[in-house]
C-alpha cells in the first residue's frame, strides 16, 4: 500500500476510533515510512499515533522526522516523554535536535541532564555549524591494542547495542591516540588468541574536528567507508562520522548549490517552515543585483542607437542572441560546477577545461550559425549582410559563452567562494551584455 492510501486508511481508523488496528498497522511499518506518513497528519493525530508506538520504533521514527515535525511534536509532549526520547536517541541525533531548537528548549534539556553529559553536549554545540565536529558521534567501539580478539568480541557483545555502529572498531592507546582500526568481519574470522595490535590496520584515514563537512563528504566518496574517525590536532580520537550523517550533509550541500544556481540565498529551514517574508528576503538581494546589472544591457543599446536607427531590423534578433548566449553559458557552468563538486575536475585543470569548452563552443557555434544563416537568407529572404551579421554573432557569442561558463566558476572556487554563484542567472546576465557588444561591434564593421 502506498503512503497516500496508508494515510487515508490511518485517518479512517482514527475517525472510527479503531485504535487497536491502528497500533498493529503502525508496528508493522518501517520507522522512515512512519515518519513520512506522519507528515500527512495534524499535531493532535501525530501525537496520538506516536504514543501508540513501541519505544524502539518511536525513537527510530523521531530520528527520521524533519525539524518541522519534531518541533510540532515536542510542543505537545510532556517533559517526561521528551526526556525519555532524548535519553534513548543516539548522541549525534540528540545534538542535531538541540541545534534545531530555541535556546529556552536547550536550557531546559541541559537542566535535566547529568553533569558529565551536559559538559559533552556543550562541547559539541560549540563546534562550528559546518564542521566535522558538529556531526560526529561519540558512540563508537574502541579497543585496546593489547587485547586479544576473544576479549574484543566479548567487549563488543556487552556494549554493542548502545553504539551507533560496530562494523568498524577503532584502536587507541591509553592517551586516546588513534592507532588503527579493525573491521568486525576480521574479528570474527581471526584466531581468538590473536592480539588486536597484530591484526589492526594502522593506515587510518581520518578527519579533524574543524574540517569542513564538504571535505568530509569528499573523503567518504573517495574511500567508500561506512564511518570515518574524527581526531583533534594531537590525533586523539574524539568521535566518528557515520555514512548516514554524511548523506544528510550531501543532501544539504546539493540543496544549497541548487539555491545558489537559482540566485536564492540558501536556508537551513525546510520550505514549509519558512515564512513568506523569509522566502522573499532570501530571494530579493540577488534579484536586485541581477536587475541592476541588467541595466548594462540598456546602456549598451543606447550607445548604439545610431546603428539601430539605420537598421531597425537588428532589434528583432536581440532576444534570440541573448537567449542563445545564456543557454550555452548555463550548459558549461552547470557541467563545470557539478564536476568541481564531485572532484572530477580541480582548480589546476582550469586551462584544460577552458580549452575543451572552447572547442565545444567552436563546433556548436558554427553549427548554430550555419543553420541560422540558411534560415534567414534562404527562408526568411533577409539580406545577405544582415544574415551574415547575425550568424557570425551567434558563432562568437556561443564561443564566448562556453569559455566564460567554464572559466568563471573555477576562478570563483579559487577565490574561496561557492562556484554555484556563477550559475545560470549570473552567467546569463553577463553574457547578455557581452552579446550586445559583439553584435553591434560586428554591425559597425559589416554594415558600414
Structural overview:
The protein has 21 helices and six strands. α16 (276-303) runs parallel beside α21, α18 runs parallel beside α20 and α19 (350-379) packs antiparallel against α20. The model has no long low-confidence stretch (mean pLDDT 86). The longest helix is centred in the last third of the chain and has 31 residues, at 384-414. Strands 1-2-3 form a three-stranded mixed β-sheet. A three-stranded mixed β-sheet has the order 4-5-6. 66% of the residues lie in helices and 6% in strands. It has 448 residues and is mainly α.
Task: List its salient traits.
CBS_dom_sf; elongated; transport; 448 residues; three-stranded mixed sheet; 3 domains; CBS-domain; MgtE_N_sf; MgtE N-terminal fold; cell membrane; mainly alpha
Amino acid at each position: 500500500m502506498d503512503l497516500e492510501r496508508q494515510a487515508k486508511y490511518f485517518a479512517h481508523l482514527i475517525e472510527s476510533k479503531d485504535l487497536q488496528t491502528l497500533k498493529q498497522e503502525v508496528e508493522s511499518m518501517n520507522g522512515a515510512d512512519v515518519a513520512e506518513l506522519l507528515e500527512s497528519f495534524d499535531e493532535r493525530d501525530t501525537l496520538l499515533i506516536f504514543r501508540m508506538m513501541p519505544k524502539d520504533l518511536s525513537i527510530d521514527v523521531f530520528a527520521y522526522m524533519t525539524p518541522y515535525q519534531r518541533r510540532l511534536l515536542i510542543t505537545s509532549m510532556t517533559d517526561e516523554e521528551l526526556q525519555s526520547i532524548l535519553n534513548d536517541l543516539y548522541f549525534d541525533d540528540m545534538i542535531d535536535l538541540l541545534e534545531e531548537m530555541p535556546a529556552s528548549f536547550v536550557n531546559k534539556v541541559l537542566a535535566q541532564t547529568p553533569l558529565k553529559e551536559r559538559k559533552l553536549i556543550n562541547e559539541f554545540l560549540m563546534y562550528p555549524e559546518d564542521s566535522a565536529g558538529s556531526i560526529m558521534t561519540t558512540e563508537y567501539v574502541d579497543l585496546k591494542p593489547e587485547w586479544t580478539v576473544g576479549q574484543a568480541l566479548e567487549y563488543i557483545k556487552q556494549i554493542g547495542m548502545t553504539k551507533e555502529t560496530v562494523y568498524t572498531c577503532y584502536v587507541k592507546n591509553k592517551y586516546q591516540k588513534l592507532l588503527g582500526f579493525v573491521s568486525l568481519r576480521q574479528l570474527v574470522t581471526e584466531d581468538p588468541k590473536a592480539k588486536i595490535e597484530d591484526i589492526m590496520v594502522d593506515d587510518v584515514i581520518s578527519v579533524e574536528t574543524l574540517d569542513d563537512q564538504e571535505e568530509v563528504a569528499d573523503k567518504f566518496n573517495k574511500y567508500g567507508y561506512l564511518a570515518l574517525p574524527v581526531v583533534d590536532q594531537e590525533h586523539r580520537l574524539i568521535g566518528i562520522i557515520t555514512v548516514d550523517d554524511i548523506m544528510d550533509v550531501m543532501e544539504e550541500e546539493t540543496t544549497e548549490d541548487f539555491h545558489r544556481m537559482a540566485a536564492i540565498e540558501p536556508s537551513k529551514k525546510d520550505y514549509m517552515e519558512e515564512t513568506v517574508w523569509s522566502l522573499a528576503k532570501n530571494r530579493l538581494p540577488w534579484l536586485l543585483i541581477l536587475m541592476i546589472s541588467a541595466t548594462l544591457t540598456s546602456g549598451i543599446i543606447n550607445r548604439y542607437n545610431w546603428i539601430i536607427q539605420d537598421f531597425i531590423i537588428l532589434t528583432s534578433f536581440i532576444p534570440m542572441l541573448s537567449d542563445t548566449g545564456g543557454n550555452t553559458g548555463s550548459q558549461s557552468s552547470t557541467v563545470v560546477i557539478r564536476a568541481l563538486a564531485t572532484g572530477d575536475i580541480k582548480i589546476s585543470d582550469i586551462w584544460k577545461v577552458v580549452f575543451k569548452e572552447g572547442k565545444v563552443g567552436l563546433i556548436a557555434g558554427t553549427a548554430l550559425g550555419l543553420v541560422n544563416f540558411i534560415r534567414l537568407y534562404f527562408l526568411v529572404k533577409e539580406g545577405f549582410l544582415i544574415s551574415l551579421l547575425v550568424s557570425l554573432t551567434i558563432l562568437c557569442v556561443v564561443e564566448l559563452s562556453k569559455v566564460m561558463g567554464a572559466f568563471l566558476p573555477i576562478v570563483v572556487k579559487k577565490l574561496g567562494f561557492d562556484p554555484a554563484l556563477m550559475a545560470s542567472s549570473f552567467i546569463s546576465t553577463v553574457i547578455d551584455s557581452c552579446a550586445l557588444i559583439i553584435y553591434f561591434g560586428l554591425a559597425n564593421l559589416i554594415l558600414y
